[in-house]
Amino acid sequence: MTETATFGGGCFWCIEAAFEELGGVTDVTSGYAGGHVEDPTYRAVCSGDTGHAEVVQVEYDPDVIGYDELLEVFFTVHDPTQLNRQGPDVGTQYRSIVLYHDDDQRDLAESYIEALDEEGGYDDEVVTEVEPLETFYRAEEKHQNYFEKNPTDAYCRMHAQPKVEKVREKFREKVQA
Question: Across the chain, what does the average pLDDT equal?
């Protein structure tokens, strides 16, 4: 039995590539959530006018990897203190957001963020939003597995590759063989 988690932390290509490294993750789908327009396109979301965030939906086997471990990876591969941006990507569509599927996910995400702030691991306060997932829209096919299909793309080399390497290093025991 698989479960689903949804995260947004900047460009979905980068977050997708990081989660695809993990054992127990059976599928990662790039898409859009948290907005007010039905069936948004990449171009519309990038305009910042739809209210959506670029997100990934992660299907995982909870017997192999837990939601708490997914949260740890998520908060490792992006900067949760940057409001409406990640690196060169600026706008609400790149906001840090956890879209929970049930009360347990909400509680775990809120507790994780609270612990991060209490530990003082960042110079600034965590600004990650925690909201219920209402609707997930799958992104266009060209955005699925983007890093895998475009490993030499300059953006991917500069932004996705370091996230993948961080996962391989920090979560070595969780990386798929």
Answer: 96
Q: Is 11 a catalytic residue?
A: yes
- What's the domain count of the chain? 1
Q: Is residue 141 part of a domain?
A: yes
**Domain hosting residue 30, numbered range:** 3-170
Which CATH number is 98's domain given?
Answer: 3.30.1060.10
The answer as to whether 177 is a domain residue is no
% of residues, the chain, pLDDT over 70: 99
Q: Which residues contact 34 (CB under 8 A, 6 or more apart)?
A: 8, 51, 52, 53, 55, 97, 99, 129, 131, 134
Residue 165: CB atoms within 10 Å: 12
Q: Which of 11, 14, 46, 156 is catalytic?
A: 11
Q: What is the pTM of this model?
A: 0.96
